[in-house]
What does this fold into?
Amino acid sequence: MAILVLMRHGRTTANASGTLAGWTPGIGLDDVGAEQAKRVAKRLRGTRLTMAALSPLQRCQETGEMVLRQQEFQVETRTVEGIGEAKYGAWTGRPLKDLSQESLWKDVQSAPSTVTYPPSDDFENESMSAMQQRAVAAIKSADAEVEKAAGPGGVWLAVSHGDVIKAILADAVGTSLDDFQRIMVDPASVSIIRYTQDRSYVVRMNDTGSDEIDLQGLSKAASTEQDAAVGGGAGH
It folds into this structure.
């Protein structure tokens, strides 16, 4: 299928202060986060993006806009609720140092598949399993649309959040959600996934470098290569 560039939003004041922003409105990029997003925009400038899917939250919208501003051609852009932040319920807006003292924190670390965030009058809550299911479903649906429109070499961008991206990557590598805390996803990091009928291929994870991201070779190969190269292959 198509090639997904999966990006986390740039840093926010909530990230810098150690606050769990969740679905709190009005959380945008700080100066560091804006520079991070601009750096990724330059790295992707030579890659023609077919479509961009953005979480509805401000920090992802701002990040996506900065990346797309550097694209030579107009990119179809849509807001996708399914890749929005995890719904942390009563944990929303609280300092991580305080949350780490609660008993649920240990389950979030070691058994996230059993976790449902506590309810709140102000913010929705959900289980971590439900978060993974709706995010993966949204990504695979959009990926299928891109392939139908642009072929298996089509490249598209999704801008989302740390835990959501970790859950998508855990699914892509075929590991349990209970292992997803092993995956690091830094602000403005790029991960790349290529889905096929038989399996998904994780091409990059948590890339925060400065080199140009050149997907031309991978895009061409995606039209003909479906099986994994035994021995690792020669690369793209």
Remarks:
- Residues 3 and 194 are 5 Å apart (CA to CA).
- The chain has one domain: 3-221.
- The domain at 3-221 is CATH 3.40.50.1240 (Rossmann fold).
- DSSP finds eight helices and six strands in the chain.
